[in-house]
What we know:
34% of the residues lie in helices and 15% in strands. The chain is an alpha/beta fold. It has a six-stranded parallel beta sheet, sandwiched between helices. Strand 4 (126-129), helix 5 (132-140) and strand 5 (145-149) form a beta-alpha-beta unit.
Amino acid sequence: MKTGAIFLDRDGVINDAVPGGYVLTRAQFRFLPRVRNALAFLDKNSERRIVVVTNQSPIGRGMVLRGQVDALHAWMIGQIEDYSGRIDGVFVCPHKPADGCICRKPQPGLFMQAAHKLNVDLSQSAVVCDTLSDILAARAAGITECYRVCCGLPLEDPPAQAHLYTLVGTLAEAAVAIVAGERGE
C-alpha cells in the first residue's frame, strides 16, 4: 500500500545555506536550530516517509564528485539518527540549471523518482522548502500541502503565488503543523 511522504529541501531547511555559495563539506554543513529534534518528532508522530529532494549543481559544475555529496548525505543522516530522527531517502539533481533536465526543481522529476522508488503517494504528501521553485516542483508533482520556511529573508514572490504555501519560520514549526493536520487538529 502506498503512503505519503514529507519531502524536505536540504539547504535552507535542514542546514544553513551559504549565500552565493555551496555546502560541499562537513565543515560547511551547519544544521539549522531544532532541525534534528523536528525530524525526531516527525519520526515518532507521522507514518509518512521523510525524504530529502535537493538540487546540487556543484556536481554538474565539476566542483565536487557525486560520491562526496553522497558521503555528506550519509553523514547528515547519521547525525539525524543520533537524535532519533530518520531520513528514508535522499534524491539529488546533479545537473546545472542550463542542462534542462526534468529532475532539477522547479521541474517535478525528483519527486517522481522518489515516489516510484519508495512507493509514495504524492497526493498524500507534503513538502517543506525555502524557495518558490521548490513549491512549483511539488505542485507540478501533485503535492498541495506545502510549507515554506522563511528564516527572516524577504520573500520576493508575486503576491498572487502566496496561496500556494503556508509560511513557517522553521522546519520545527512545519513539523508541528503537519502532524496536527494528520491528526485532524
